Amino acid sequence: MHLPNMPRVAFQRHGQFDEASWHSILISLLRGLAAFIVATAHLRAAMYPAVRDVADPPLWFQGLAFVSGFAHQAVLVFFVISGWLVGGSLLNRLGEAHAIAGYAIDRLTRLWTVLIPTFLLTLLFALGIGAASLRTIDLSASNPYSVTTFAGNLVGLQRVLVPVFGGNFPLWSLANETWYYLLFPLLAGACTTPNKTARLSCAAALFLVAYFLPTSITGYFLVWLLGVGFSRIRIECGDRARWGWFLLVLAGAGYFRLTGELDEFELTTLGQDLICSVLYLVLLSSLQFQAAPGARVAHHVRKTGKFFAEFSFSLYVSHVPLIGLMQHWSTTHLGLRQLSPASPQHTAVYFGMLATLIVAAYLSYLLFESRTYRIRNGLKKRILRRPASRPDGSVLSTELER
User: Is residue 45 domain-resident?
Assistant: First the structure.
């Protein structure tokens, strides 16, 4: 018996990715906002001293430090949304012809269209500022600029067998993502494949891969799977319940920002991150309904979210090399190795650098990331002998899991 005005939980066979739905609008906003927070945090850490090291820090600087402290949860949001979109869309296609082959092409083109040019630009920047030289580019598995490291970072081996390429430390999370892209099809095959031998083979491969991976990567697969699972859950409730849960999400995020571990993604932080993930996902599941036709607020929010979401992946993978380049320039040309929170001129330099990161990421998107679908379509025509079907909705139209 269902009580009036009580939330109702329903399970759906297919994930909903309609761009006009509020959960899709929120996903786009979260993707763009998360990438912005991560870039803001890393730029602040590179150019400013820590708040605790500043005597009487200005109020604006304390606010900047507080907001940028949500970078941990921003990366967590990437994992949650990736599970919802990537895993959820694969579940929608299971049983179709070439589903796994098409999925593999989708994932590789999604990553490599951005990573390959970013790595080449990173190497060019390093050569330009003297951080690397052509003589140091070898096959060493410990050299951050080696051919081996370049190739290893393309297949998720950073911090597994090789370092992150060019010292671009946020790439650690792409190792997690890459392995989740492999683990989930194996899990789905072990659970759904009709052939018993194939099921056992998928289960054995799943166990072996999970066993040899670092425990932090395997453990956070649970967060990714939560995203997949909640893409099949629809929560029907009233606006009052949604707003109440939204306030609870903000309270939970604030609590863990102030009391939780902010630097690592290890088994010790998994508990707090599972709680945060459930809070986010319940909110998303309660928003699976379309915005009112002609609603101006929804139109503007959707347009803004879509714009920033489209190049959020480019911003995420390119901002650290760009920060290194700008830091080198400010040191050699302005004599500013570190900025002072008390100086208005230094504040202008910081926000000028932040604007440069955003503009550069958008230009990178136009040059490389925006061509993902064209490259993917060409590969599917050549390999699968059929064109790539356009995904439904703005969220999946860019196939952006990060």
Answer: yes
What is the spatial distance between Cα 314 and Cα 317, in angstroms, rounded to a whole number?
6
**Residue 395: predicted pLDDT:** 40
CA dihedral for 362, 366, 370, 372, sign (positive or negative): negative
Q: Is residue 366 one of the residues assigned to a domain?
A: yes
Tell me, letter by letter, the H, E, C secondary structure of the chain.
Answer: CCCCCCCEEEECCCCCCCCCEHHHHHHHHHHHHHHHHHHHHHHHHHHCCCHHHCCCCCHHHHHHHHHHCCHHHHHHHHHHHHHHHHHHHHHHHCCCCCHHHHHHHHHHHHHHHHHHHHHHHHHHHHHHHCCCCHHHCCCCCCCCCCHHHHHHHHCCCECCCECCHHHCHHHHHHHHHHHHHHHHHHHHHHHHCCCHHHHHHHHHHHHHHHHHCCHHHHHCHHHHHHHHHHCCEEEECCHHHHHHHHHHHHHHHHHHHHHCCCCCCCHHHHHHHHHHHHHHHHHHHCCCCECCCCCHHHHHHHHHHHHHHHCHHHHHHHHHHHHHHHHHHHHHHCCCCCCCCCCHHHHHHHHHHHHHHHHHHHHHHHHCHHHHHHHHHHHHHHHCCCCCCCCCHHHHHCCCCC
Model confidence at 3, in pLDDT bands (50, 70, 90)? low
Domain count, the chain: 1
Instruction: Tell me the C-alpha distance between 386 and 347, whole Å.
Output: 53
pLDDT at 394: 38
Whole-angstrom Cα distance, residue 402 to residue 400?
6
Task: Give the torsion sign (CA, 264, 270, 275, 279).
Answer: positive
Asked whether residue 1 is assigned to any structural domain, the reply reads no
Using CA atoms, how far apart are residues 7 and 4, in angstroms rounded to an integer? 9
What domain range is 198 assigned to? 8-397
Within a domain: 369: yes
C-alpha dihedral sign at 118, 119, 125, 128: negative
Q: What whole-number distance in Å separates Cα of residue 65 and Cα of residue 108?
A: 35
- Read off the pLDDT of residues 105-122 as tens digits, 9 standing for 90 and up: 999 999 999 999 999 999
Q: In this predicted structure, what is the pLDDT of residue 84?
A: 96
**Model confidence over 219-238: pLDDT tens digits?**
999 999 999 999 999 999 99
* 398 or 15, greater pLDDT: 15
Residue 338: CB atoms within 10 Å: 12
